Amino acid sequence: MKSRKVIEINRLSYHYPDGTSALRDIQLEVYEKESVAILGPNGAGKSTLLYHLNGTLIGQGEVIVLDLPVRKENLKEIRRRVGLVFQNPDDQLFCPTVFDDVAFGPRNMGLKEDQVRERVERALELMGLNGFEGRSAHHLSEGEKKRVALATVLSMDSEILALDEPSDNLDPIGSLALTERIRSIPQTKVIITHHLTVASDLCKRVLLLQGGRKVEDLPMEEFLQNRDLLKRFGFDPEFAGWLYQRRKG
């Protein structure tokens, strides 16, 4: 028996203001606690699709998140429950201190200050950032900034995390550290990445996009063994085979 459906997308299409087609007839279902990787080349529509999950973009078709249609009247509630983490953490962090950044969402929900503090402490602990409360996010390393950005949505108790290239611009050690933190989070996750290792480590399912269309939606282990698909999307089948064996072992 499948768990609860938390994302349902039916025939979603989106055109940029200049008329360029970014998404065409996307169908997608995601279930509670699933982790789904979105893979594809630049310009495939990955970020455009992700931004539809909290109404940052609204196209033609139907997007239902946590039983709420993504429409203007539902956006406040949807954005409370769907935590969107941008590729560049500087787009998300704008307060004087880490504490204020992570507290921003709960304060705007109208929570009392003791509740806000409790949420901030819990989110920072999950991200391994205890003691960072008084620091400025803009003086942190890229990996630390990314963890603070994640904490800003964890403090909202978001039920779905939508992550755009979480390991971008990180060295292998930083990427591994962040991946381990993300893996420890139990929420439903939809993750854009160009890194097959990150996708394999975090996700059991892969959505492949190309030219704004869904090419395939399949289990991660099937993808790691499909040489034709791997080559089509620019991944090394030998490395993918090693990742497959690591998952099995």
Describe this structure in words.
The protein has 249 residues and is of the alpha/beta class. It contains 10 helices and 10 strands. Strands 6-7-8-3-9-10 form a 6-stranded mixed beta sheet. 43% of the residues are buried.
Features:
four-stranded antiparallel beta sheet, six-stranded mixed beta sheet, 249 residues, single chain, alpha/beta, globular
Major sheet details: 6 strands, mixed
Number of extended strands? 10
Lateral strand order in the biggest sheet: 6-7-8-3-9-10
- Can you tell me the overall shape? globular
Strand content: 15-25%
Tally of helical runs: 10
Rg (C-alpha, Å) = 18 Å
Q: How much is the average pLDDT?
A: 94
The residue ranges in which pLDDT falls below 50 over 5 or more consecutive positions are none
Supply the helix-strand structural class. Answer: alpha/beta
Strand/helix succession? EEEHEEHEHHHEHEHEEHHH
- How far from one another are the termini? 27 Å
Proportion in helices: 25-40%
Secondary structure elements and pairings:
Elements lengths: L4 E11 L5 E11 L3 E5 L6 H6 L8 E6 L2 E2 L5 H7 E4 L12 H11 L4 H14 L15 H13 L5 E5 L7 H12 L4 E5 L3 H7 L2 E6 L2 E7 H6 L1 H6 L4 H12 L1
Parallel strand pairs: 3-8, 3-9, 6-7, 7-8
Antiparallel strand pairs: 1-2, 1-4, 4-5, 9-10
Helix pairs in contact: 3-4, 3-5, 4-5, 7-10
Task: Provide a compact summary of the structure.
By secondary structure, this protein is an alpha/beta fold.
